[in-house]
Amino acid sequence: MTRSRIIRKSFNPFSRQTWVRGWRVIRTYQFRVADRVNARSGWLARRIRWPLGLGSPDRWPEVHVFRIGGIGDSLMSTPALRLLKQIRPQIRIVFYTPYVEAFRGLPFLDEVRPLEDYPHYSAVYSLAKPRGVMYSRIVDGYRARDVELLYEGSIPPRRHIARIFGDQLGLNVRDVRPSCVFDEALIRRYQEAWAHLPRPWVVVNRKSTSGLNKNWMGEHWDRLIASLLKRYTVIEIGAGRDGGDPLWHPHYVDLTGKLRLGHFLAAVAAGDIHVGPMSGPVHVAAAAGKPSVVIYGGYEHPDCSSYPENMNIYTELACSQCWLLMEQCPYDRVCLSRISPERVEEAIASLARSGPEAVHGPLEQMR
């Protein structure tokens, strides 16, 4: 068979295979364009992705949803799923996550399962590239009533990621606060253990595990913590310091490298203020109704992930937002080095001055 005959056969307009292939190409392009628009406009993105609402997941009888990445990404999925259940109480929502303990028991999720139970591969093939998404897998997923919540195709966004997730389900999410399951007995145990220490209790997480270009300098952290300990209690979680002698102070609680998931959630919720880069604890604190001082630098804009009660420290430079996750920063993280410990301490002090009702937060807000 000659090459020309092969081509004519492949593009036979009477072949079902040709029409299926054409439909997939159109849908793939449609979702790609919707993702690019989604960085700025949810209204338009929803209409590109689901013209007239046809085929939108918010109209399905059952939806299987998953999100890869850290616990913060999973938490940012919950506002859309919560809204979906509110407007369609009859829909069955199955959520797949590596952090089952943090979500099993939420009233708007019918089932929470481990991520490895999800039947399809992720559509994200490169976290280092803004468009590292295989849209053909998204098309296949929608045909099977499966949805992978993504923002990788919308980088750099200037809208909250929780709202971008909602757009992919055909929803206009307004309340971006995440939901999480906390062990209230564990929270009280931590609070009782810290009861003799001065307040506010400042929970510190030095590092994000999802990218070096989010992380403030170690020497800045050392200066900040030393100054905070003169007035407040510092509870440190996460990876802690890079080498050096262990820190000791009567107002310092070291929980670095020691917390299983349930204890990690409870420790953040038990504190009064959280301080750190944009990472999982910021979203956990928001779910618990606790404010954060977030050291953004120039990696991402606060519009992408902030919550109303937070103090956000962002550096506006020509290279901001960079979203350099896997690559070395060519400017030696100048956006972070320009943020002084004194500036972060003043933000913490501002939250501390706002009063116990704003900082301490009742347990009833934690669900």
Describe the structure.
It is a single chain. This protein is of the alpha/beta class and 367 residues long. 37% of the residues lie in helices and 13% in strands. The chain has 14 helices and ten strands. Strand 1 (62-66), helix 4 and strand 2 form a beta-alpha-beta unit. Helix 2 packs antiparallel against helix 3 (42-49) and helix 8 packs across helix 10 (261-270). It starts with a helix and ends in an 8-residue tail after the last helix.
Tell me the domain tally: 2
The string of secondary-structure elements, in order, is HHHEHEHEHEHHEHEEHEHEEHHH
Portion in strands: 5-15%
- Shape type: globular
Strand order of the largest sheet: 7-6-5-8-9-10
> Based on the structure, what is the oligomeric state of the protein chains?
single chain
If you compute it from the alpha carbons, what radius of gyration comes out, rounded to the nearest whole angstrom? Answer: 23 Å
Low-confidence stretches: 1-9, 361-367
Q: Can you summarize the main beta sheet?
A: 6 strands, parallel
CATH top level assignment of the largest domain:
Alpha Beta
How large is the count of helical segments? 14
Mean of pLDDT: 89
Category from helices, strands and their pairing: alpha/beta
Helix share of residues?
Answer: 25-40%
Please, what is the CATH homologous superfamily of the largest domain? Glycogen Phosphorylase B
The N- and C-terminal alpha carbons lie at a distance of 66 Å
CATH topology of the largest domain: Rossmann fold
Brief description of this entry?
This protein is α/β, with parallel strands linked by helices and 367 residues long.
